[in-house]
Specification:
CATH superfamily: q2cbj1_9rhob like domain
InterPro entries: DUF2086 (IPR018655)
Largest sheet: 8 strands, antiparallel
Number of helices: 5
Helix content: 10-25%
Organism: Achromobacter anxifer
CATH architecture: Sandwich
Protein name: Fe2OG dioxygenase domain-containing protein
CATH class: Mainly Beta
Shape: globular
Structural class: alpha+beta
Number of strands: 14
Number of domains: 1
């Protein structure tokens, strides 16, 4: 695995108090687009405070927040448990989804144009959610994941219907080295015109990584072609790891 990882520039992330919208606005989104285009992912440091991380992770036991619970081993997804939130989403989860989407939608539209994909994405997440729901994709997809010692996640893509937003965000809610050992985020790319690549993405508590859900455009002499990306989590050797996944398209 390569240890290479892209960190998006962010102006004084700890000066924005408890408002994730302010931290998201302070991100250098041009640098994010560059990193996504080059590597298929970009790290956004310290979008959540430790207290916010603990509050979100602490909600894992409250079954009233969720529409379903998945034991990964039953489906050969790996080992661990994840839960899909139900509507209405918890306040912080909904705010993150609403604040990130309009920053990513213009990048998504440029990617689709480069890859000659027809779908274009509206300016607001409410509009995009309406498109998903009109197509029968009505089930919310933000999720909370818990890994314990021995748990891991197989490489996969989060594709839930015909309308797929090309990016998702993953927030690490625990601190590596203190709360758990192992459990690195893994990204694998298959390139039809070159060698494949695998990256380890190093995160701290409160960091988010934006990553490509399915493909990224790769420039060639004849325009662009599509490289395929998947993500997973390596085996935990110790402790407990929670992550929040923000997927922007809903499920059929």
């Amino acid at each position: 695995m390569n240890s290479r990882c892209f960190h998006a520039a962010q102006a004084e992330p700890l000066t924005h108090g408890g408002q994730p919208e302010s931290r998201i606005a302070a991100v250098d989104w041009g640098a994010v687009e560059d990193g996504l285009g080059r590597d298929g992912h970009a790290v956004l440091p310290a979008l959540l405070t430790p207290a916010q991380c603990e509050q979100i992770a602490g909600g894992f036991a409250d079954e009233s927040r969720f529409r379903s619970r998945i034991v990964m081993e039953r489906y050969a997804f790996g080992r661990g448990v994840y839960k899909y939130f139900s509507y209405p989403l918890p306040d912080m989860v909904g705010r993150l989804r609403q604040a990130l989407y309009p920053r990513l939608a213009p990048i998504a539209n440029r990617w689709h144009a480069a890859m000659k994909l027809d779908e274009r994405f509206p300016a607001s997440h409410d509009e995009f959610r309406d498109i998903c729901h009109a197509a029968g994709q009505r089930r919310p997809t933000p999720l909370l994941l818990r890994y314990q010692a021995g748990d891991y996640c197989c490489l996969h893509q989060d594709l839930y219907g015909d309308h797929v937003f090309p990016f998702q965000a993953i927030f690490l809610l625990n601190e590596p080295g203190r709360d758990f050992q192992g459990g690195e985020l893994l990204l694998a790319e298959s390139n039809p015109k070159g060698p494949g690549r695998a990256d380890v993405v190093h995160l701290s508590q409160g960091d988010a990584v934006v990553l490509a859900v399915n493909h990224r455009p790769v420039r060639s002499a004849r325009g662009y072609y599509r490289a395929n990306l998947r993500h997973g989590v390596s085996r935990l050797s110790h402790g407990q790891r929670h992550t929040l996944g923000i997927i922007f398209h809903d499920a059929a």
